[in-house]
Amino acid sequence: MSEAAREQILAAIRAALGTTRISQDDTALDLAPSDLPTGVPELVELFCERVGDYQATVSRAEVEEVAGAVAGIAARHQARRLVVPAGLPAGWRPAALELVEDHDELAARELERFDGALTGAGLAIAETGTIVLDGGPDQGRRWLTLLPDLHICIVQATRVVADVPDAIEILGELVRSQRRAVTFVSGPSATADIELRRVHGVHGPRRLEVVVVTGGN
Amino acid sequence: MSEQPFPVAAAKALRDTQLRHNLGEATRTIRARRAELVAERSDWEALREAGRRIRDEALGRLDVHLEALERSVTNAAGVVHWARDGEEANRIIAGVLHQHGATEVIKVKSITTDEIALNAYLEREGIRAWETDLAEMVLQLAGERSSHFLVPAIHLNRAEIRDVFARAFDLPDLSDDPEELTAAARRVLRERFLTVPFAISGANFAVAETGTVAVLESEGNGRMCTTLSRVLITVMGIEKVLPRFSDLGVMLQLLPRSSTGERQNPYTSLWTGTAAPDGPNEFHLVLLDAGRTAVLADRIGRQALRCIRCSACLNVCPVYERTGGHAYQSVYPGPIGAILTPQLARLEAGRSLPWASTLCGACYEVCPVKIDIPSVLVHMRGRVVREAGVARSERWAMSALARVFSSRRRYEAAQRALRLGRAPLRVGGTASVLPGPLRAWTSARDLPEIPDQTFREWWRSR
Question: Which of 22-61 (B) contact A at CB < 8 A?
Answer without folding.
Answer: 22, 25-26, 29-30, 42-43, 46-47, 50, 53-54, 56-57, 60-61
